[in-house]
Amino acid sequence: MESIRERYKQLEKELDDIEHIAISKIEKSKASFKACEKAMTELKTFLADYVFKDVAEEIYFFKELKPKFYCKLIYYVRLFEIETERPIGPARTQRKYLNKCITSIKRYTHDNSGFYKYYRSGAAYLDADYFTREKYDIMIGFDLSYFDCDQSFCTNHDYTVATLLANELLITYLDAELLKLKGEQTNLKSSVSEEFGLNWGDTKAAFIELLYGLQTLGVFYNSKTRTKADISQVARFFETVLGLDLGNYYRTFQEIRIRKKGRTAFLDKLREQLIERMDETDENPRL
């Protein structure tokens, strides 16, 4: 299973690279879908020649691994649909449309609330029924799409898990779009700045170097999806809290990356001065 986990990390990097290409949201969703489709095809090919060691490993694959890939594919398909059907007009019209999308997504979660609670609670007593192949019980429910899929690559609830996870990502995206339309982001920037009076005092490139360092360490995570936050989420957070305009931080990072020397100039400086401060404190604890 290690090769599958590594493939997922590779997919995340591919999607992150696509996110930072200067193309439209629709084009990004199309490119991201193709990357997910390729990964899913590879996953299916892998499984065709793989024999699970036991039922526990089969459950792990269909409960934990496959849905990670599948939810990304579903997410970008839905994102493409949302953006291609999004009305071009005043903010009020767009808000109405986006709220309608959110209502539709929440309806699916509500319709599957029993299973959603089971999955999110970490329960496992029905895993053999939900996440092993060629096993379904009308008494516990199952997705009718199960009969249309390749049953050697499907269980009766891995699609449901993937859809619920994709819906969480979609809700996060739609909430952010509504926030932009309402102008709340701008108001939040000014209110936070006024309350604390803090501003970044070094260069934008230095902050972006710090930003990528923190995201690479994985110190921030998405509380809704329980996954490592991507660079766009971390950047948006700091832009909002500090009132910064980081511009094309991806391009700036590329410029930092190709420096002939001092690729981590700010982080090196930070480390040196922090150690120096610690040394001074060792000599004079009152500092």
Summarize the structure in words.
There is one protein chain. This protein has helices at residues 2-19, 25-48, 55-85, 91-111, 113-120, 127-130, 158-182, 184-196, 204-217, 231-242, 249-257, 265-283, and strands at residues 221-222, 227-228. It has 287 residues and is an all-alpha fold. The protein folds into two domains: 2-182, no CATH class; 189-287, no CATH class. Strands 1-2 form a two-stranded antiparallel sheet. α1 packs antiparallel against α2, α2 (25-48) packs antiparallel against α3 and α3 packs parallel to α7.
How would you summarize this macromolecular structure in one to three sentences?
Helix content is about 70%, strand content about 0%. The chain is mainly α and about 290 residues long.
Instruction: Write the H/E string, N to C.
Output: HHHHHHHHHEEHHH
Count of distinct structural domains: 2
Q: Main beta sheet: strand number and arrangement?
A: 2 strands, antiparallel
Low-confidence stretches: none
Shape: globular
Class based on secondary structure composition and strand pairing: mainly alpha
Proportion of residues in extended strands? under 5%
Tally of separate helices: 12
The percentage helix is 55-70%
Cα separation of the termini = 52 Å
Give the averaged pLDDT, no decimals: 85
Biggest sheet strand line-up: 1-2
Please tally the β strands and state the result. Answer: 2
Radius of gyration, in Å, reads 23 Å
Features:
287 residues, 2 strands, two-stranded antiparallel ribbon, mainly alpha, single chain
How would you summarize the topology of this molecule?
Blueprint: H1 2-19, H2 25-48, H3 55-85, H4 91-111, H5 113-120, H6 127-130, H7 158-182, H8 184-196, H9 204-217, E1 221-222, E2 227-228, H10 231-242, H11 249-257, H12 265-283
Antiparallel strand pairs: 1-2
Helix pairs in contact: 1-2, 2-3, 3-7, 4-7, 8-10, 9-11
